[in-house]
Design a protein that fits this description.
Blueprint lengths: L1 H15 L6 H14 L17 H9 L2 H19 L6 H4 L11 H9 L5
Length: 118
């Protein structure tokens, strides 16, 4: 029990006189912090906007180049499916029976190129 009382007196003395950093240390920390701050960029006069053309206006209204690429891909796929006659979409890929693939890649090209199909 006396050891605890002795230890408590040391803790009370430490609480009474807390260590404080020196002013020189605080000034060095503040100087380092200011040195690490990003520098401001010089102000530049804004470029006046040019007039948009018709194509640029239409392209911006639909969502830009990625959307136009998707529209072109979907349009080409729809045109290909519409012009070639394979008996529906299932006829392009797989036959329902046990014989396996109905059309291979070469047959699909032949379907797309020829008038009468295979």
């Amino acid at each position: 029990m006396p050891e605890e009382m002795e230890l408590e007196t040391f803790f009370a003395a430490a609480r009474a006189d807390p260590p404080a950093p020196s002013q020189a240390l605080l000034a060095r920390i503040a100087d380092e912090g200011r040195a690490l701050q990003p520098r401001g960029r010089p102000l530049v006069a804004p470029v006046p906007p040019r007039g948009k053309g018709t194509f640029r206006s239409v392209l911006d209204s639909i969502g830009g180049w990625p959307v136009l690429g998707g529209l072109m891909t979907a349009g080409c796929a729809g045109l290909w499916l519409g012009l070639s006659d394979a008996g529906g979409l299932g006829g392009y890929v797989y036959a329902g029976g046990s014989e396996g693939w109905l059309y291979g890649p070469a047959d699909l090209v032949a379907l797309a190129v020829t008038e009468d199909g295979v």
